[in-house]
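Memo to structure team: turn this sequence into structure tokens by end of day. - J.P.
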Amino acid sequence: MRGRTDGAAAACSTPSLAAVPVTGIEDRQRCHGEVARGFERVREVFEQNFDRYDDIGAAVSVYHHGNLVVDLWGGISDPRTGARWRPDTLQVIYSATKGAVATCAHLLAQQGRLDLDAPVADYWPEFGAAGKAHIPVRWLLSHQAGLPVLYRRATLEEIIAWAPVVTELAAQRPCWTPGTLSGYHAFTYGWLVGEVVRRVAGREVGTYFAEEIATPLGLDFWLGLPESELSRVSWTTEPEAMRGPAIPLDAIHRPWRKALTAYADPDSLTTRALFPTAGERVDLNRADLLTAQIPAMNGVCTARALARFYAALVGDVDGYRILTPATLATATAEQANGLDEVLRLPNRQALGFVLSHPGLSWCSPSTFGHGGARRDARLRRPGDRYRVRLRDEPPAWHEPESPCVLAGAGRPHRCERGLIPARHSSRRPTVPTGRRSGAVRLRRRAGRRPRGGSRRSSR
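Reply from structure team:
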């Protein structure tokens, strides 16, 4: 089992907006769905993604105090066929999957079955080889284990099979002294944490997520997609910018040059971590890669499901909450802060979540979450309140008096502007100059550079 049963999906995949007054959207408009009264501005900004920023297809959902108040979708889900985006269209969320995998580990800890301070080898004896016997579980979650690469690049068949890559990782010597540094485990994160979950729970991480989290919440969200759901997945297009001419290094903002030099070196730790395969790349339009267990990268869900998942992570949703406040506090406590050994950029890690730091100029000190290649899932905690947002570009501000959960596919980050109260309407959103503007991430989705977007590179 790698996902919920069809019965669960049919029963629970469409939460009701009946708890709040709603305004419908006419079919003649470019987007469809419903918004609660007071959230109409979100719809207006969402429509601008298509009218002004050349978006292809997108969806956005917002939870407010546990209620679904925005549920919008629009555009094209498959440019090859012209198929329209539907309310149940699924989207690959790339590294935002890591938040779900980390939550599985934290739920096992909450259940008393996993000790984050115990050696990984207590649960996975083979992992103790090559000087790794003392590495605790928490260092896997915080990217401090020193295992961001496979010494021998894997084939796609080995990645799909699971056992070859986890066997390889168990035998490897760390790239640095574990616990002393943190470096983004782009692909290996899912295999390392996922194997611990499998050993403790006696089930694949996708199965555990389905049975313990997705099914109780009624989520269209899988780590390893059932073949029956493949027809619902939107097609990810390669951006035109990736096929265009290279940008001269001296034209890149100085803090990015060292990082981009590492990205351009095929033998660097950065490149080996981000591209772990020999030959063919990991193309998540392929059915066999979507149905496999690649839990650092191939999560698939709807915008509605992702919003509902994070709403239940930080609070009660229809009588169900995933993590207790104490467990959530543990999950979001800082573990590492400084230059990421893989990304070559500032980073600040919790146990499976990224925390705010100066390089994330759009985040408040209490922001936490996890980014992805094409979207971003973030939690915001103003005081004792929480937000979650999925985006590709920094918002201009945050409004602590309006705690919301927002998630989507495409470019829902702009929809945050519709959540700002009218009294802030005179404050114009800006993209910070010389910082991570997210312009490249936007191009990945639409294949074009948005008007006014930065030319600087971004992951």
